[in-house]
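Reading group handout, session on sequence-to-structure problems. Before we discuss, look at one worked example. The prompt was deliberately terse, the way you'd type it at a terminal:

> structure Oxidoreductase molybdopterin-binding domain-containing protein

The input record follows.
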Amino acid sequence: MLRRPFPTPPAALRRGPFRRGAFTSALRSPRLTSHLGLLLAVAFGVCFLTGLLSHAIQHPPDWFWWPARPVWLYRVTQGLHVATGLASVPLLGAKLWSVYPKLFAWPPFRDLAHALERCSVLLLASTAIFQLVTGILNIARWYAPMPFGFVAAHHWTAWLAVGALLVHVAVKLPIVRRALSRTPRAVPTDGLSRRDLLAAVGATAAVVTVATVGQTVRPLRDLSVLAPRRPDTGPQGLPVNTSAAAARITVPADFRVTVTGPAGRHAFTVADLAALPQHTVSLPITCVEGWSADARWTGVRVRDLMAMVGFVDGSVLVESLQQDSPYRSSVLAPPHAHDDLTLLALRLNGEILHPDHGYPCRLIAPNRPGVLQTKWVTALTVVPS
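And the output record:
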């Protein structure tokens, strides 16, 4: 049982943020906090759902199904994920500013219920900050400050953040409804009004979005000065995350692509692949960091290659020359394995693949994350359903 609190802080604490009148801004109010909280809840909700979808695509559970068409769907969902995450930064900053004086309220805990509520708020704030910071570091591909696996940490912390958010909304909903239903009280101030503050926060979120979304929305690329990737940079006019040098790729002189299925096994040289019927498709490549770019790919249809070894149904395991990567292989689920647009590509925009884009050959399939568009392909194997 908690002890009865003091009505005011001890004398030793009546200074700094604990002194009376330490926080004088008249802008803070339940109404302002409620507006910011609702905007942040919507942004976090969209970011969580699109992030959960991206995780399921990359690490599919048995029940999950993801289509090959429309080819731009993942481009939209992942672009939305990154855009809402970045727009949440100024929203979260303003929300924390509106409530942080409560950190110094006395007593720290009035009773057990109040203690649990404050702990849930601490969990929400810390997980929200963690998600935004690690997300930005991932966009920038700067992993040195993260001594842990980004994918697992970001995924499971998202569940903690959303759980804490739902608890917080449930606890504060009566206050929010009451604050938003009342006629707003005029605030005597010589500076910003609450409406001005909300407009400034919204404008900041909009500027952040415009300054980054050009990495996937090509017409805005010249305005996206903060975008870490631009859709027309890199070898052959396409961005690169992992170069051949970084992946330590060495193409052997006797390079072959081995295709294995129920009817046997074939090994193809690059010349053999180039002698097969070639197809050209226009497909975007979309990375989990939020950038995407359109390109023309030329190569052999995967389903035609697999038909040579008796492929009728099931998935296809695609393996790479790259060794030290969790994405050195990927699985083409049936919707993608059978799609006419799925190629073992030999050319990009009419040119032989650059080594950084996967020479001698790479996978390109519709509506898949870039990490699953396996480069430096060396084997295709039928996986029975």
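Points for discussion. First: The two ends are 58 Å apart (CA to CA). Second: The chain has two domains: 11-220, 237-383.
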